[in-house]
Amino acid sequence: MKYRLATLAAIIAAHAAPVSAATDAITFSGFGTLGAVLTHSDDLQFRRVGVEAPGTQSVDFAPDTVLGVQTNFRLGDSAEAVLQVLSRETPKNTYTPRASLAFLSYSLSPESTLRAGRLRLPTFMLSDSMLISYAHPWVRPPVEVYGLSPFSDLDGIDFFYRRRIKDVDVELHPYLGRSQLDIVQTGHSSLSHLRGLNIGLSSGALTLHAGYARARLDMRWGDPFTSRLLDALQSAPGGEHIIAKMQGSDAATSFTSAGFQWDGERWLLIGEYAARRAAAFANSAYGWHLTVGRHIGPFTPYLKLARTIQTSPIISDQLSAGQPALQRFNASRNGAQRSFGAGLRWDLRHDAAFKMEFARTHTDNDSWGAFFPVHHLTRVSDRTINTLSVSIDVVF
Amino acid sequence: MSSSKRHGPLRRWIALASILLMLAAPAVRAEIVLVTAMDSAIEALSRDEAEQLYLGRRATLSARGALILLDLPSGPVRDQFYRLLTGKNPSQIRAYWSRMVFTGRALPPTESANVSDAHRILLENPNAIAYLPATYAEDPSLRVLLRLE
């Protein structure tokens, strides 16, 4: 036994030997964004994801500001461990750092990699890099699509298979696991039995994406308004049917997306369609965005159009008819809106970019869109709201 | 007199050749070679493999174990290399790599301090690959795997 262990150790050492001083066993890197959003309305707040803690200031640093530090540990020739710790405002209104990546990866062949641990959930085309603002032309990927999936962690396994066919790089990315999410105050949500597949095709300046995932959704709301509403429904006749639509366990949920990116010498074109279907606890909706940009030296000015449309509310129109509290609950969980934006990315240095974006958004008449009222009785639906966002992104 | 007549065409050829050389000079300077050490086991590298490696779409060449992929610091040679191999400009490459790194997909090539540092690392590590200005193609200690122009 001892001999076997010694042999094993020798084999491992022999495998590890070619790693020289030229490639460090440990690599540190990081990324950060300092961003501010000015909502041109005294009574509304912008929120990036429907579950985050809304701010109270007219200039809000919370939606986009983030800091991430990462360590890659090389473990021999084909294995690696990655730890990424990230700090941004949580739905609990703190900046407590948390592990956003913590996984082991193993290369089975030059074309395939298996990873297990905490990964990023790649729901839509750019979901796994949603907070790495430096990687994108915008201050943030359009909320009209990315608001449809607030989940960002994948606790489980994923697999990459890459292969070049002619001059096209094909990437198959299946994944499996679960995801958890805190919601404002004491709320909590999770996706279990989560499984998905992404297909990516890249050739030169063009990248195509298609993705599909399904899961079981659990939901527990924790904000005071919904808690009072749930209490009231408990004692109302037929209330339990409505409660069963609002929160509980095991609602079948699916996410579908298809998108493209053309990042050429001069032109930048990005477009995506994404849909969320949920049997309960969340509404079913779809969204799309389209961006046209132009590279002029270090500047990339762009125009952006985006839309979210609700296909079915959490509580059906029949049940919520004549019930303002139920309608308010539905609207506050509905991100339906349309927006037009104009922005600029300026690559300041080789490791920093400055961005600004003006957007004019109109919320649907049964929706709060990406906004939250500062005062309880403020109307959010069917309004036109201007926002100005600026950010500085760095990578190190 | 007769000698000047005899040398006339030759002089014209020399003049023409020097003009051609001068014209060709910028192109020669812009050319970049992917190289490894002469005693390296890596004998061939296709353009496809090179592009995949430098875009983090594969980590190794088949069944040859770990590879040390070298990068040069920011500058004209590096910018030219990525433009020739991937068609991406410096900002696009950096944005691309930031996504690869921070989603945990790949680590970028190891950055050497300068061209001569890259040369030194190549000689010390037979499993290393680097891109260098084409003048290094004549270096007897290096093996040219791929020429980019």
Largest sheet composition of chain B: 5 strands, mixed
Quickly count the domains of chain A. Answer: 1
Cα distance spanning the termini of chain B: 45 Å
Using the coordinates above, name the CATH class of chain A: Mainly Beta
| CATH domain topology of the largest domain in chain B | D-Maltodextrin-Binding Protein, domain 2
Tell me about the biggest sheet of chain A?
16 strands, antiparallel, barrel
- Examine the coordinates and then state which fold CATH places here, giving the name of the CATH topology of chain A: Porin
CATH architecture classification name of chain A: Beta Barrel
Overall number of strands of chain B: 5
Strand percentage of chain A: over 45%
Strand composition percent of chain B: 15-25%
Structural class of chain B: alpha/beta
Give the name of the CATH superfamily of chain A. Answer: Porin
Residues in helices of chain A, as a percent range: 10-25%
CATH homologous superfamily placement of the largest domain in chain B: Periplasmic binding protein-like II
Number of helices of chain A: 6
Protein name (chain A): Porin domain-containing protein
Keywords (chain A): Signal
Organism (chain A): Thauera terpenica 58Eu
Signal peptide (chain A): 1-21
